[in-house]
Write a structure and sequence with these properties.
41% strand; 485 residues; mainly beta
Length: 485
């Protein structure tokens, strides 16, 4: 599995019955209750945002993210709670005098009626007077806000919808994408947007202008409260690493069995296409025929084989178990119907050796000796500064530790990516299996959806029931292009 991060293109917090705009604030304060102060209002607030899906759509269009091999692509909205780092903040008050909210539900809804809106230039939640100025330049009532979307347009319903199920846009007409319960109030947002985003990618859903996050109407409409409660999340204007994003998980793992094709088990074969070292796509899916050692098609196999595009320039076929053949023996996979830019290409014939199943399975009276692994990398250098426009193919040479020549060609290896915030490891990508082809192990690392920071990569190898983890195998920095110029 690989990930793609899509970030917010704009966001804002709408305060009930207020013209205040806080679009540039690094934190959104979602509050409810009845206790007003001289500076901060009572009532409740809602958070709205839109996503920049350009990179995600580009990857789907060019086949980097496959829509033919799997339907397991998922999309999760992630926002970090400002209280998630310190349990001591539970059941305390914020700097605004509000209690930190606990035991509540937030909804994720789609903004109705395709209403366009502007982020605004406001920062402060209240019109504060500073010693050095008679006005607060961080305070703004320019749209968007509770009433208006832009200078000349307004929401169909103030606040986007009516939480009492009346008015132009009653709550019951909203599209609720997901609901999340918060037990303690310090949990991070993790909304499932899979169906919503997949419908946008396929064109089944168009004209979306953003989404919103709010308390359930039952919470917004609570009466008789003597306190005010809130939860805070980092927005796209945070100066920390915790910028909110949409995390897309997709399956692009390559597990090529060409060098260890075993009898009596499912195997996978791949066709790779490159032009001057760059992966390219065919105009349409090819076909494949499996031939035995005599060049004869395998009975009842060829018509049933399904081909899919695993990622850009890579096509996969899954071969069901082959039974009854004398091993080892050489078979052939013939790829046909190859069309590129409207031109037909000649068939491609590859070979593979079928081995007995016992070559990959150990059965006997002895145990497998544990191994210690070493790694060499190419594609990223140790302590390298990398442009945030690069896409790197990172090759991994896996070998027995303390040797330079004893390479290990068939192991299950994984990598994870993270950054460090003090003593805390902030996970960027969870353990992900490394691609295995006939000639190398590798993974693709796209810096375009990564926030500039210092990154670390750990390695993990699973063998003989052992899980061996190797920390900080690579350290590098992703930097803005302007930084290096």
């Amino acid at each position: 599995m690989s990930i793609n991060n899509s970030y917010f293109s704009k966001n804002n917090t709408l305060i009930s019955n207020s013209l205040t705009n806080t679009g540039r604030n690094p934190v959104t304060e979602l509050f409810y209750g009845s206790l007003a102060t001289s500076q901060y209002p009572n009532g409740y607030s809602r958070f709205i945002f839109d996503l920049d899906l350009t990179l995600l759509q580009e990857k789907v269009a060019d086949g980097t993210i496959s829509t033919t091999c799997t339907d397991s692509m998922t999309h999760t909205l992630r926002m970090v709670n400002t209280s998630t780092f310190n349990l001591e903040t539970l059941n305390t008050t914020t700097s605004q005098g509000r209690l930190r909210a606990t035991s509540f539900d937030l909804i994720l809804f789609r903004i109705p009626n395709n209403q366009m809106w502007d982020e605004g230039v406001g920062y402060d939640f209240a019109d504060l007077i500073y010693e050095y100025s008679n006005s607060d330049r961080n305070f703004s009532t320019r749209p968007s806000n509770w009433s208006g979307t832009t200078t000349i347009t307004k929401w169909s319903e103030p606040g986007i919808y009516n939480n009492k199920n009346t008015g132009t846009v009653p709550y019951s007409t909203l599209t609720i994408v997901d609901t999340q319960h918060f037990q303690f109030g310090n949990e991070n947002i993790s909304f499932d947007m899979t169906n919503e985003i997949n419908n946008i990618l396929t064109g089944a859903l168009t004209g979306v202008t953003g989404w919103g996050i709010a308390y359930l109407p039952q919470i917004e409409n609570l009466t008789g409260l003597t306190e005010n409660y809130e939860v805070q999340f980092f927005t796209r204007h945070t100066q920390t690493f915790y910028e909110p994003f949409l995390e897309t998980n997709y399956d692009d793992i390559i597990e090529d069995d060409r060098n260890l094709f075993s009898l009596s088990k499912v195997n996978k074969l791949y066709l790779y296409l490159y032009e001057d070292g760059n992966p390219i796509n065919l105009d349409s899916l090819p076909t494949v025929t499996i031939l035995d050692a005599n060049g004869t098609p395998i009975p009842n196999l060829t018509p049933t084989l399904e081909i899919c595009q695993k990622t850009k320039g890579v096509y996969e076929v899954i071969i069901p178990p082959l039974i009854g053949y004398q091993t080892p023996c050489t078979f052939y996979d013939v790829w046909s119907d190859l069309t590129l830019n409207g031109f037909s290409l000649p068939d491609v014939t590859n070979s593979f050796v079928i081995y007995p199943l016992k070559k990959s399975i150990q059965v006997g009276t002895t145990t497998q000796d544990p191994k210690i692994y070493g790694f060499d990398f190419y594609g990223i250098k140790q302590d390298e500064k990398i442009y945030n426009t690069d896409i790197r193919k990172v090759g991994v040479v896996i070998k027995q530790a303390y040797t330079t020549q004893k390479l290990l060609p068939n192991v299950d290896a994984y990598y994870r990516v993270y950054v460090r915030e003090g003593q805390t490891q902030v996970e960027v990508q969870d353990w992900t299996k490394i691609n295995k082809t006939p000639n190398e192990y590798y993974f693709m690392f796209d810096t375009r959806d990564k926030i500039p920071n210092e990154y670390y990569i750990d390695m993990k190898v699973i063998n003989s029931g052992e899980i061996n983890t190797y920390k900080k195998q690579i350290k590098f920095q992703i930097v803005n292009l302007k930084y290096l110029e």
